[in-house]
Amino acid sequence: MGRARRARKIAQTAAYGGGMGVAGLGALGLLGYALLRVEALLTRRIVGQQFEGAPDDAGRYGFGPGEPIRLLVLGDSTGAGMGAEHPHQTIGATIANGVAAFSGRPVDLTNVAVIGAESPDLGPQVERALEAVAVPDVAVILIGANDVTHRIDKAVAVRHLEMAVRRLRDAGAEVVVGTCPDLGAIEPVPQPLRLLARRWSRDLAAAQTVAVVEAGGRAVSVGDLLSEAFSADPTVMFSADRFHPSPAGYARVAAALLPTVSAALDLFGERSAPPAPDLRRGEGIGPVAVAAKRAVARPGTEVAPTEVRGQPRGARGRWAVLLHRMRPAMAVPASDPVPASEAAAPSDAVAASGPMGAPQPDGVT
C-alpha cells in the first residue's frame, strides 16, 4: 500500500473512531518488537545530556499600533522550546517576532505546549489555551514525535489532532500544524530502528496532513529539515541532548512555519488574490492524500485546503494546494510524477502536466 493510501486510510479510521494497532508494530512480530525495545533502550543511553525544562516564552513581541495579534502555541517539547537557551530562541518567539515585523503590530504569545506531550494530550491544551485567550487569531501546533517513540496508535493520534484543529477553528483561529518530524534523521538512533522510525514518522506526518486539511487547517512538513546540517556538524542544529533542536535548529523550523502562519493571517493579501501554484517548482492542486505524500518528502512544504470550480471536494476527497513556501538552501530537482495509481481521475479535473497538477478550465479534463 502506498503512503498516500495509508495516510487516507489512517485518517478515515481516525474519523470513525477506530484503531489500527500499536503504531503499526503488529507486522513486525514479537521478535522485531523485542529488538526495537532493546535498541530504544540503547538509544536513550547514547543521547546526550537531558534538560530539566524549557524557557518561558509567553509574552508580547514587537511594537506598532493596533490590537495585538493573538498567537497560541501547542504541542510537545518542540513547541515548548526544550533545548533553547533563551525565551527568544523558541519557535513560538521566533514566529511572534516575524509576524510582528510583517504586520507592524505587536504579537501576544501564549504557549501551552507540554514537554513529553502526545496527540491525546492536545485536548486539555486546547482548553487551557482558550481559557487564556478566548478568541485567538492563529494557533501553531507541533506534535507527533512522542506518538512515534511511545508507539501511540496512529489513528488515535490523528483523531485527537483533528479534534484539536476543529476546536481551534471553531474558536475563530487559523491553525498551522508542523507535522511529525522524521525521527529516522536522528543520528544516535541505531539501525534498523532508524529505518522503521523514518517510515512511522512519515506515515504519521502524511496522515496528520490529511486530517489537518480536512479540519480546515494548514499543515507544514517538518520532516528531516535538520538532518543535513546535523550530519555535517551535530552541534549546529541539535542541542546537547542530540535529540531536541538547538536555537539554530528552532530558527530553521520557525523559518519553515513563518510564511504559512503569515499567509494564514492574510499578511500577504492572499485571500483576495491566492497565489497560483508554480508547476515548475512541484507545486499544484490535487487530492489531499496525494499532496500529503509529496509533502513528507520535502520539508517546508505547505498543504492547505482549496477549491476547484467552487467545490471543496472531488471524487477522491478534499482538494488541497501544495506550496513550497520555504526556498531550499540548494537546488532541488523537480518532483517525480505522481504514479498512475495515485493520480487524480479525469473526473476530478486535474491536469497531468505536473506532480500535483492544476485545475483545468471548465470543460477540460
Automatic annotation (TrEMBL):
Domain SGNH hydrolase-type esterase residue range list: 73-252
Composition bias type Low complexity, residue spans: 333-353
Transmembrane parts of this sequence: 14-36
Keywords: Membrane, Transmembrane, Transmembrane helix
GO MF annotation, one: phosphatidylcholine lysophospholipase activity
Alphabetized Gene3D superfamilies for the sequence: SGNH hydrolase
Region (Disordered): 333-365
UniProt superkingdom: Bacteria
UniProt cross-references to PANTHER family, sorted A to Z: SGNH HYDROLASE-TYPE ESTERASE DOMAIN-CONTAINING PROTEIN, THIOESTERASE 1/PROTEASE 1/LYSOPHOSPHOLIPASE L1
Name recorded for this polypeptide: GDSL family lipase
